[in-house]
Amino acid sequence: MRPRALEIDELITLLETEHAKIRSALVELHRLLEAGKLAEATDIIKAMDETLIQHMLDEEATLLRAVIEAFGREGARESIEVFQEHVEIDSLIKEMKRSITAVDVDPIVISHELSLLLNSHFLKEHASVFPCVREAERRLAM
To answer: Shortest CA distance to 107 belongs to which of 52, 48, 34, 56?
Structure first.
């Protein structure tokens, strides 16, 4: 898998669209889990995982690189911290997949944790990371 070859504004627009799709998928995932439709819930989480892998790759390879290039590591610290959440997100996705077939973990609880984490993460990206990336792009173009 490779980062998508898009201009930063196009990529941010695509990432924000994916945020909305993932939020909708989380709602559907929770509904399916509550209804006991585990096979359909598994399909949702697998598709979400594939989307998030590409999504995180794009953010780290393209957006974070631009921020570090424009502001240095210290200036990119906030963006780095937000993107470090990708490790926790990936871990929770794996836990979600496991919980659907495990008897020792409630998938509805994991689904709720995943929703909270992703919604918080997306908010941070929208409020601080994406504006920082746009400023980095502006500076790098000078």
So the answer is: 34
